[in-house]
Amino acid sequence: MEDTESAGTAPPPGLSSLLPPREFLRSRKGQLLLAESVLSFIIFICYIASLAASFMMAPLLEFLLALFLFFAYASKLNEKFKGVHWPLADFLRCVTAAIIYFAISIAAVSKYSDGASKAAGVFGFAATIVFAIDFYITFNDLVTFLKQGGSDSPEGHKTE
Asked: Membrane spanning segments where (predicted)?
């Protein structure tokens, strides 16, 4: 009987263990990654329903990458795998996503006349802004990080 009482007070170790912590969701990085994932998914759905279905691969890949980084940062995977330079990978992902979303949004809005393509283009412009904000913030953090540890020694970024 004591086992059920102690198990009742602790959260079940099921799907709730996959949820990100609240402090990460309240952080700027968590909110940006969540916004990027949601916008990429909405754009993906819009492109599937539109005549511009040839553009659906870019939002799908960006959705999966943003979702992976969301859970990687939330589960502190970036602290476990020091061999990957996470801020640089995130910066490159954001830069390429902003450029790709800007280009396909212009093409979707100007070339196609259906409503879903126009909606995907508008959401694509919004995603471009979100990704641009993310790569600006990541770039500033990356420069600060490199000035602190990168100039002292070649292994400066590993001794935090």
From this structure: 32-50, 56-74, 86-108, 120-139
- Helices and strands counted in the chain (H then E): 7, 0
Nearest Cα to 71, choosing from 136, 20, 2?
20
Cβ-Cβ contacts under 8 Å for 120 (sequence gap 6 or more): 43, 46, 47, 50, 52, 55, 59, 105, 108
> Is the pTM here over 0.90, yes or no?
no
Convert the pLDDT of each residue in 60-97 to its tens digit.
999 999 999 888 888 888 888 888 788 888 999 999 99
Contacts of 152 (CB under 8 A, 6+ apart): none
Domain definitions of the chain by residue range: 24-77+85-151
Residue 9 tokens read as: 């007070």
